[in-house]
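Q: Convert this sequence to structure tokens.
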Amino acid sequence: MRKSGLIAFLLIGLVFSAAAQQADPSVLTLDRIFSSSDFDPQGLGPFRWLRSGDSYTKLEPAGQGKKGRDLVAYDAATGARCILVSADKFIPAGSTDPLAVNNYDWSADDQKLLIYTNSKKVWRLNTRGDYWALDLATGKLTKLGGDAKPSTLMFAKFSPNGQKVGYVRENNIYVEDLEASPARITALTNDGARNLVNGTFDWVYEEELFCRDGFRWSPDSRHIAYWQLNSEGVKEFQLVNNTGGPPPTPVSGQDPALWSKHFQSMVLSVIAITDRVLPQMKDRKWGRIVTSTSSGCNPSRSATICDSTVS
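A:
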């Protein structure tokens, strides 16, 4: 009896000890490493140097329980801090919340701020979104793009004189005059389409050459040089199905329902997709269907690749 009581006491002690270790922030566990944010790096940016060269700016959470972030300046030599643009300056008319600033840039004279927000991913990076211009002298906050759809502006940048902003919108290049009232937007190109891209790049250049932003202002703010990609003569290559098979299992001894389930996903789905796209390929007199599936057999995994060309 005494022995069993001693064992119970030891087990309870171990349980409490384990619980204490889990709560102890000095204890390193796999859960803390892979399932928590305890070790996430703290980013510095985005930060920008001011024209003077002796101070830089960065975004920091607004104090006193306010929403949004302040844009603060630090003296590079002394570390002295001051708020240049408080979070309330980022609140658009008719809203109560400040913009969620993803990035920003200064005009050459540090008198205007270009704000990037509501960003969306293009291929790998968030390179399209909404842009706003903030005039520090007047406090006026203006959304750029006119009637543009949300999150469709790319690579906006001030002209060197700070009076205009150029940007890409749905494969065309536009310039918006910040000095005009009401705002004046000029389309520099109007032939942008799925196969003709102005001012940015398609996925091949983005993936292989890291090219994304494809236009630049001239030093006198009067011209824009840009890349144009024309793929109108390039035929479409359609990768219709690229799917893995069932988890690796022994070939024998499996429930027939398991084989039926994966036959549905690996074979019948391919037939259904082929039936859907094949008529369009015949109309164009060209097309290709590539199907790659795996059997998932253990220990070795076999693969099947079908390549059908329509001519």
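Helices lie at 2-23, 30-35, 203-208, 256-284.
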